[in-house]
Design a protein that fits this description.
- This protein is an alpha/beta fold and about 200 residues long.
- It has one domain.
- It contains four helices and twelve strands.
- The chain is elongated, with a radius of gyration of 27 Å.
Length: about 200
């Protein structure tokens, strides 16, 4: 059986419980505020603003943004992150202006690297479409993709033991290890936009 208590005892218990809850809530607020302050000091190395070669890169969420003239470009990595990773061989790279107003075809073995291309060529190319190069390049293509050749603007992002970015006619090949393909794609974009010399 439950012990009967007076209203005065119940009121004391209620006030004590409220006081305990208040102290706990204040403690949580103080600890979370302290954690935010400590985290902001700890992230000084991961600066959200970087300047590279006269271009300001601003981190928003998972992406780095920069503007060239009136146009914004979006990257998974900033030039410093790519530069620190590796040096890439470039051969006969053309600038982004050569894609202006023409269709662009893309074959990629890495979805995120492909997204970098589509995101940054939007509004520059007349249209963009996944496609496959003719059989002489040995790509593993879906039958639903149209077959093109290097007379069309074409970007191929492919896994390879060799880290390289090069042109063959109107085709650009970005090749490297699977884990490097996004950085290599950003490196290519930095080069053709003039961000990197």
């Amino acid at each position: 059986m439950r012990k009967l208590s007076s209203k005065q005892d119940e009121e004391k218990r209620r006030k004590r419980n409220q006081l305990i809850m208040g102290i706990i809530l204040i403690g949580v607020m103080v600890v979370s505020t302290f954690a935010v302050i400590v985290d902001s000091f700890g992230n000084k190395d991961k600066t959200s603003n970087n300047n590279y070669n006269g271009y300001e890169f601003v981190k928003q969420g998972s992406y780095w943004y920069t503007s060239i003239g009136e146009r914004s470009f979006v990257f998974m990595y900033n030039p410093y992150e790519v530069q620190e990773s590796f040096n890439t061989t470039f051969t006969n790279i053309t600038y982004i202006s050569s894609y202006n107003g023409y269709p662009l075809y893309v074959y990629s073995e890495n979805y995120q690297a492909e997204s970098e291309i589509f995101r940054n060529f939007e509004g520059i190319s007349l249209r963009m479409q996944r496609a496959c190069l003719n059989s002489s390049y040995g790509l593993n293509c879906s039958e639903e993709f149209p077959i093109k050749d290097c007379s069309s603007n074409f970007i191929v992002i492919k896994e390879s033991n060799e880290r390289k970015i090069y042109n063959e006619e109107n085709c650009v090949f970005i090749t490297g290890a699977k884990e490097d393909l996004i950085k290599l794609t950003d490196e290519y974009l930095f080069k053709i936009t003039g961000i990197k010399d």
